[in-house]
Amino acid sequence: REYACSKREEAISNFRFVGKLESATPYGNGHINDTFLLVFSQPDMGNHRVILQRLNNEIFKKPEEVMANILGVTSYLKKQIIANNGDPDRETLNIILTKDGKPFYKDSIGSYWRAYFFIEGATCFEKVEKEEDFYESAYAFGHFQMLLSDYPADTLYETIVGFHDTASRFETFKKVVQADVCGRASAVQEEINFVLQREELIHILPDMFQAGKLPLRVTHNDTKLNNIMIDNCTGKAVCVIDLDTVMPGFAVNDFGDSIRFGASTAAEDERDLEKVSCDMALFECYVKGYLKGCEGKLTDTEVSLLAAGAKLMTFECGMRFLTDYLDGDHYFKIHREGHNLDRCRTQFKLVQDMENKWDTMTKIVEKYGS
Ligand code: ATP
Ligand code: MG
Ligand code: MG
Question: In terms of residue numbers, what domain contains 149?
Answer without folding.
Answer: 131-369
